[in-house]
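Technical note accompanying the year-one report. For the benefit of new consortium partners, we illustrate the data format agreed upon in the data management plan: each record pairs a sequence with a structure-token string. No post-processing was applied to the example shown here.
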Amino acid sequence: MAYIWLLLLSSVACVPEKHKRSPLNQLTRTLLRGYDSGVRPVQNWTSPTVVYIDLILQSILNVDGKTQSLTTCIWYRQIWTDEFLVWDPEEFDGITEISLLSDAIWVPDVIVSEFVDEGKSPPIPYVYVNSSGLVKNYRPIQAVLACKLELYAFPFDKQNCTLTFRSWLHSVQELDLALWRSAEAIASEQTEFMNDGEWELLSIPSHYWQLQQAGGEYAHIQFNVLIRRRPLLYVVGLLIPSIFLMLVDVMSFYLPINSGTRVTFKTSTLLGYTVFRVNLMDELPATAVTTPLIGVFFAACMALLMLSLAKSILAIKLLHHGETEVRQMSVSAQLLDRYGSLGQSFAESIFTTASTRTLDDLALQASGSFGFDRLPPRESPVLSLEDLWEGLSSRLDWILQDLLCLRLALAEGESEDVAQGKWLVLCSKVDRVLFRVYLFILVLYTSTLVLLWLSWGLA
């Protein structure tokens, strides 16, 4: 009998002691026992659940003008009170805060109205709950937001994109929204923002408002993300090279009009600008709504280069026109009447006279006028004194006529040189007038753009 009792005592001693649950495990089981995650956690159903919203902007990843969207990385948190998750810390070894699965408790249906895609947001399955029932839900989000972008002032543009938090189903009588921090603190918060990128964060103002919809009022909190682009990269890479090419084109007007290299130089400049424009197409923002002003600037610069080339071609064409062809042109005739007559008109010049009276005509006229047809034949064996004197006089007249023809030829050459010089002076004057018109258009357009960009940059 004693032996049996010893066996029983030994078997009882070999049974392992049951593992005692930790206070954290006991607290979790106690809180979630009988908890219904589909019921709004209030003791009095007429009391609204206030959800506090906080927002921290971390970075701007992309601004897409074609899809009118903004890709950003934000940290935001929702804070509310769950009246069913309250405990006494002294009963659970002084625990004041625990983490629970967000799927196990009630979570407000607060969304962002501008969300297009949540992107690559990491899943955070837990929330923090303290002993007074305060629930904190922290969420990092890479969000793609629908945003109305104003790219007309690129690269000196500012953007205003909104994030509007609202409840999807609950009206303000059931779920209300509020800011966790003051609006001034949120607006000036830039400690977490990566401020070394293309965009500069100006501020994040916010305001609360209610929308009457479907027979009820719905609470909204809207954050305005105000950002400004840093234009230095685009000024150095786009505007300055374009301005240099335009200055080179302006300097080409100082090439002589009759040098023959101006048109070649301007054609090379236009071709180089076209290649520059094509290579930098990807640097400009793609937009389907409005054309950025810098795109208009590039198109206008190309148009001005083509206008400059056409002006040079016109001046050279005038330079190589004959006087008769030019006088048939009304504009050129007016220019000739104003600038071409220096003491006498071209019609009264020796150039016009010489064009209708050739050396052959003068020689024929001289031969008929001075008696070359009356010279005695060389075969005549006997010459009288009178015949000899008459032949000598005729030969002297013939020599005099040769000298006269030579003088007329020299005078005609000098007249042609004078006419060509006058024509070159006239074409130079036309070239200067066209250059001044071109320079006026260029300066007016450039100053307008600079004033617009300065006003946008300083606003």
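Partners are asked to follow this layout when depositing records. DSSP finds eleven helices and twelve strands in the chain.
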